[in-house]
Automatic annotation (TrEMBL):
<dbReference type="GO" id="GO:0005829">
    <property type="term" value="C:cytosol"/>
</dbReference>
<dbReference type="Pfam" id="PF02223">
    <property type="entry name" value="Thymidylate_kin"/>
</dbReference>
<feature type="region of interest" description="Disordered">
    <location>
        <begin position="142"/>
        <end position="162"/>
    </location>
</feature>
<keyword id="KW-0808">Transferase</keyword>
<dbReference type="GO" id="GO:0005524">
    <property type="term" value="F:ATP binding"/>
</dbReference>
<feature type="compositionally biased region" description="Basic and acidic residues">
    <location>
        <begin position="146"/>
        <end position="162"/>
    </location>
</feature>
<dbReference type="GO" id="GO:0004798">
    <property type="term" value="F:dTMP kinase activity"/>
</dbReference>
<protein>
    <recommendedName>
        <fullName>Thymidylate kinase</fullName>
        <ecNumber>2.7.4.9</ecNumber>
    </recommendedName>
</protein>
<dbReference type="GO" id="GO:0006227">
    <property type="term" value="P:dUDP biosynthetic process"/>
</dbReference>
<feature type="domain" description="Thymidylate kinase-like">
    <location>
        <begin position="5"/>
        <end position="179"/>
    </location>
</feature>
<keyword id="KW-0545">Nucleotide biosynthesis</keyword>
<dbReference type="InterPro" id="IPR018095">
    <property type="entry name" value="Thymidylate_kin_CS"/>
</dbReference>
<comment type="similarity">
    <text>Belongs to the thymidylate kinase family.</text>
</comment>
<keyword id="KW-0547">Nucleotide-binding</keyword>
<dbReference type="InterPro" id="IPR027417">
    <property type="entry name" value="P-loop_NTPase"/>
</dbReference>
<keyword id="KW-0418">Kinase</keyword>
<dbReference type="GO" id="GO:0006233">
    <property type="term" value="P:dTDP biosynthetic process"/>
</dbReference>
């Protein structure tokens, strides 16, 4: 199974992934996107989000393409989980690109563009389950601020500092889940719900 854990910055995705991994009765692999340590497109994203790539972040489509290319670099790894006994938890996947792009452009039409780009042209596998960690944006924002204060190497990026963007992204995620975009969704904050759905 390929299980994508989605949510805005500070929602608690990493904590949730760790909790699920401990309680699933099977070996579980984990992969987080963007892959800042190993992927050139992801490293360019990080540079842009911290203001070191000129006006690159002004283009929602350019940023979405870099995020997509980062995932495409992991395509072979992801395909090994299709129709297999293995389980992988993804800390963000394609829906994050759709939600953030729609929030930035204030236009849901880009959701279909992202779907066609990543699942179509780039051939990424569709997840078996997408989980929206439905942490309220105000709570998530406080967590992101606290995390940055505790870890000097974890400065908040342009997207994380934009509270209006985070709210619009959260709303876009809810619309994606409501549409059943790219498959099955579960909207919750309870790890027990997720474990039950996986089982």
């Amino acid at each position: 199974m390929i299980i994508a854990i989605e949510g805005i910055d500070g929602a608690g995705k990493n904590t949730l992934v760790s909790a699920i991994r401990e309680h699933v009765d099977a070996p579980v692999d984990v992969l987080a996107f963007p892959r800042y340590d190993t992927s050139l497109p992801a490293q360019l994203v990080a540079e842009a989000l911290h203001g070191r790539m000129g006006d690159l972040t002004d283009s929602a489509y350019a940023m979405a393409t870099l995020f997509a290319l980062d995932r495409h670099g992991a395509r072979e790894q992801l395909m090994s989980y299709v129709n297999s006994e293995k389980v992988i938890l993804l800390d963000r996947y394609v829906a994050s690109n759709a939600a953030y792009s729609a929030a930035r452009l204030r236009d849901d039409a880009v959701m279909d563009w992202v779907h066609d780009l990543e699942f179509g042209r780039l051939g990424l596998p569709v997840p078996d389950l997408q989980v929206l960690l439905a942490t309220e944006p105000a709570t998530a924002s406080q967590r992101a601020i606290s995390r940055a204060e505790q870890d000097t190497g974890r400065e908040r990026d342009r997207y994380e500092r934009d509270t209006d963007l985070q709210q619009r992204t959260y709303d876009a995620y809810l619309r994606l889940a409501g549409r059943g975009w790219a498959g099955r969704w579960l909207v919750t904050t309870d790890p027990a719900d997720i474990l039950q759905e996986i089982r």
